[in-house]
Amino acid sequence: MKILAIESSCDDTSVALVDCSAKGFFVIEEKTASQINLHKKYGGVIPEIAGRLHAEKIVPLIEEVLKKGKPDVIAVASGPGLITGLIVGVETARNLSYFFKKPLVSVNHLEGHIHSVEIKSKIVYPALALIVSGGHTELILIKKPGTYKLIGATLDDAAGECFDKVAKMLNLTYPGGPKISAFAQKGNRQAIDLPRPMLNQNNFNFSFSGLKTAALYHLQKNPIKNEKELNDFCASLEESIIEVLTEKTIRAGLKYKTKSIILSGGVSANKYLRETLSRKTKEKLGLNLLVPEFQYCMDNAVMSAIAGYYKAKKKKFTDWKKIKADPTWEIG
Length: 332
Ligand code: KG4
Ligand code: ZN
Hints:
Blueprint (H helix, E strand, L loop, with lengths): L1 E6 L4 E10 L2 E11 L1 H5 L6 H20 L6 E7 L3 H18 L3 E5 H7 L11 E6 L4 E8 L2 E7 L5 H11 L7 H8 L24 H13 L5 H30 L3 E5 L6 H15 L15 H13 L19
Helix pairs in contact: 2-3, 4-10, 5-7, 6-8, 8-9
The site of 5'-O-[(R)-(carboxyoxy)(hydroxy)phosphoryl]adenosine (KG4) has 19 residues, from α5 and α6.
């Protein structure tokens, strides 16, 4: 089944044609236009600009991708995300479905992130997914493909948002996560004692806004004077975020006795998180952590094609007249 998928929920316009079967997933073509450079000067993604840029890029990208083959199914990530971007993807998919007379599947962006690991690995069920991005920090239990139970989520800021907002305090450009992580690699992770929010609570929820405030107070009292202090501050912040994410994920894995642990979403590109969670998953659960290849950590249409495949196999199609963008669509 060849699936043409579209992703436009945030600041990447991505289109992919993926050959999907029970044997695995083969990316025939993938084209992505990142908007990061245009949003950088505002310190974050501006929805109005994002929408216009998606509208400008989407048709040329589809044209490029369709040179490599014809789709059997059209898939689109129709939520959650920014309405200005989602609407461009959904309206384009609606038109393609009508024009090519091909069935349409509406996929959840987070479901896409979960399935991003399947480009190289196989998920064994029941599985547990930690999705960490700029907008989400969620622990999701997946009994089988398509059956999701949200067992924990952030009560305020997402982990990626905490990285980005603290990076802004340090005058680092958006997205700040990768920059903090680069300084952290050279720093002492025990240098500054920052809080571990909700670590000792007996649930799987997270909270990062208090940590962000603690970081702000620390910086106000102790302005950074040299590179060593910057490295130590970033390392201590990263340690705090990653300790909470890792500990809660392992506890959930032990409680629910899952057969796979998945790490995905933009923050899964963080090397220290990949290494720490991977080591603990092996030690405490005897499992190999499933993570997407670096290029599939950030938003992309390949992951939407894979999520779309499982729905298409079950014939869970959406009528082109009825599909809608849903910026607050939650799974589980
Ligand atoms: O999934 P994604 O591409 O977009 C959303 O759906 O939000 O995630 C983007 C987020 C940003 O907050 C960015 O700072 C964070 O992922 N990120 C990282 C790293 N690479 C990307 N955070 C920490 N360390 C990284 N290496
Ligand atoms: Zn995302």
